[in-house]
Amino acid sequence: MPNYNKLPLKTLLAKASPLRSGDVLGGVAADNAEDRVRAQMALAETPLSRFLEEELVAYKEDEVTRLILDSHDAQAFGPVKSFTVGELRDYLLSERADSRSIASLSPGLTPEMAAAASKLMRAQDLILAASKITVVTRFRDTIGLPGRFSSRIQPNHPVDDLKGILASALDGLFYGSGDAVIGVNPVSGSLENLLKINSLMAELIERYEIPTQSCVLTHVTDTLELVRRGAPVDLCFQSIAGTEKANRGFGVSLSLLREAKDAVLSLGRGTVGKENVMYFETGQGSALSSDASFGIDQQTVEARAYAVARRFKPFLVNSVVGFIGPEYLADGKQIIRASLEDHFCGKLLGLPMGLDLCYTNHITADQDDMDVALTALGAAGCTYVMGVPGADDIMLNYQSTSYHDVAYLRKITGKLPAPEFQEWLVKMGIHDESGALLKPSVKIPLLAGGGGLAGF
Amino acid sequence: MIDSDKGNGRDRPEGYFSPDPWGWLKEHTDARIGLGRSGVSLPLKEQLKFNLDHARAKDAVALAFDHSRILEDLEKLSIPALHLQSRAADKNEYLTRPDLGRRLAPESLELLKERVKKDPELFRDRDVLVVVCDGLSALAAHSSAVKVASGFLDLARLGGLKCAPVAVVSLGRVAVADEVNDHVKAKLVVNLIGERPGLSSPDSLGAYVTYGAYRGIMEESRNCVSNIRPAGLKTEEAVRKLAYLAQKAFALKLTGTRLKDDMPENYLPFEEGLSFLPAK
């Protein structure tokens, strides 16, 4: 057995991380089960202050490290500055930690501290601690309020057929989905195509006065170009990761993200809020897959991406769990664990955290795993999940959560959509006042008046 | 039929199943819309359809690669071929260790070197190397790989290109073809490989085209033709597209992001014979 106290922090974190295939692939996982638990014991005794002294990627070489350390709020950190990681975990579960005290602590925590604490927590700890945290963002509706659960409509189509996209979007609205965003992953990145999709979504939202926002999930540079051409851009999407090098792999830097945010902010298209205009996507495994994880375990480097996200006060953030393949998360068990970790760390760091709970056909997972993960995340207070028709994304070729799943989760938790959106659903005859789906009727105004949009 | 009261001769109380009155939207997309619901849940009929598609996709991933059948079929068409293996020991290791699937097993490496040395007339100075891998869907390789390989090789030969024997690699990833080409040294490599099965497309073959492939070449240096299957991109269309990409690759001496696919509708493969090849 090694002397755990002498291990570099990133080695200790990696060994302490619950087993997942990506850490095995990256050669950083614990040697065996005992090694893992001994590392967790050592991590529990590690002072939080060590995280401010020991960089996981060199400060000089990595702008994410610089962002984390330079923006660290020493005053907010004050109440826990003498804590160990184990004490932070205990504190978060205690009665003393509530929505307010955690919110004031948040700027004093680094992503690595959050990741470290999560490694010492079981599923119920991750659920309980996260459920205390409220993160509210606003654009045309208000996301993340207690008792609310939102969803993205993901109406993708394999050849970007506008009628096909619209058909899937309407199906989602009829099921009460779409209060987080109506977000399309385009197949073709041609500007002409992006403009068409963007305009269609904007028209849908305007015509029916839907209190939601749209997004075309393309690269920030494309979104910048859309803004320059006067397109009706609500949210700016970008995939981000936890190191400068991994972000370079995505073709972004902090300054480019700042430029994109400023451009979209200048459009001022939000109504109930104007500050939150970014939509970030993250996911365990992305840093390793671009050879940019610097020997950090995949969960810790994922948490570092949240430092990038929180810098830009995003409207939405979601981790995608289960998409890349079994080399990063091998099965349903690892997917469920990762989704709870990412949700907890994101919320602890102050993000409006949602999840794309998903699996591909070469992972050992199925709908049962999605149901368990979804139900656990509902209990944890997850901000939103994806709504994909029948859980089957026919463009991206993977399975995520469905419009039906969103309705299920609201039903068993008693949660409602965002207040403005719920009000609209009632007006449209889709939901009743209690948030239950009404018997579908051809009298839904949306059905009667689809004419004109996308040539229906 | 569980969610319908027709056809079973029994009356069912209303309210178990609620159909969606927007079925007409379905004509615009293959997405699973207008499914109806039981309470808020998926009707059983739809759930079972989904489960069947998932089962087929899972079976496609698990299916063992019948490489000898591929070799026999190639032999029947008088296409020389050899069988190689990646470093992945079995399907499970293959799935979780993509790095092993990208490398040739040491014995296969020796075998390849030996064959290249023994048959210089088959391997020397080659323009094209076709590789066939099971990838994530042996089903796709079984159903389409030989047809696409032979179709493309026929066209390539007609176009005057010299083709190396086909390398059939078990448990191979896209990049395993790069290592094969370290020893064959063909100008252009086409790797026909089973793609990650979608819920409705368990038999989808991908074709990765790489100019000047060597172990370690960047992924951005490839062009890909995707979704080759009977219900997707048909074999003949895929072959035509591959010929187009090959022709353009030889003209530009590259593949990847700088080779834009703008194949004209009426493109005829290798119409101008060898004229597209750069002058020696």
What does this structure look like?
- The complex is a heterodimer of chains A (456) and B (280).
- Chain A has 456 residues and is of the alpha/beta class.
- Chain A has 2 domains: 4-131, Annexin V, domain 1 (Orthogonal Bundle); 137-427, Aldolase class I (TIM Barrel, Alpha-Beta Barrel).
- Helix content of chain A is 45%, strand content 9%.
- Chain A is built from 22 helices and 12 strands.
- Chain A has helices spanning 9-16, 21-25, 33-44, 50-53, 63-70, 74-77, 85-93, 99-105, 111-119, 123-131, 162-174, 191-207, 220-228, 244-249, 254-265, 286-289, 298-311, 332-348, 367-380, 403-413, 419-427, 445-448; strands at residues 137-138, 142-143, 150-153, 181-184, 214-216, 236-239, 278-282, 316-321, 353-357, 384-387, 392-393, 398-399.
- In chain A, α12 links the parallel β4 (181-184) and β5 (214-216).
- The mean pLDDT of chain A is 96.
- Chain B is α/β, with parallel strands linked by helices.
- The model of chain B is unreliable at 1-7 (pLDDT under 50).
- Chain B has one domain: Rossmann fold, CATH 3.40.50.11240.
- In chain B, strands 1-3-2-4-5-6 form a 6-stranded mixed sheet, with helices on both faces.
- The relative contact order of chain B is 0.12.
- Chains A and B meet through α2, α11, β12 and α20 of A and α1 of B.
Question: What descriptors fit this protein?
Answer:
heterodimer, A: alpha/beta, Annexin V, domain 1, TIM Barrel, four-stranded parallel beta sheet, 22 helices, globular, B: 280 residues, alpha/beta, Rossmann fold, 9 helices
Strand order of the largest sheet of chain B: 1-3-2-4-5-6
- Beta-strand residue percentage of chain A: 5-15%
Give the CATH topology of chain B.
Answer: Rossmann fold
Percent helix range of chain A? 40-55%
Number of beta-strand segments of chain A: 12
CATH class category of chain B: Alpha Beta
The CATH class of the largest domain in chain A turns out to be Alpha Beta
- Which architecture of the largest domain in chain A would the CATH scheme give at its second level? Alpha-Beta Barrel
By CATH's scheme, which homologous superfamily of chain B applies? Ethanolamine ammonia-lyase light chain (EutC)
Widest sheet of chain A: strand order?
A: 5-4-3-10
What share of residues are in beta strands of chain B?
Answer: 5-15%
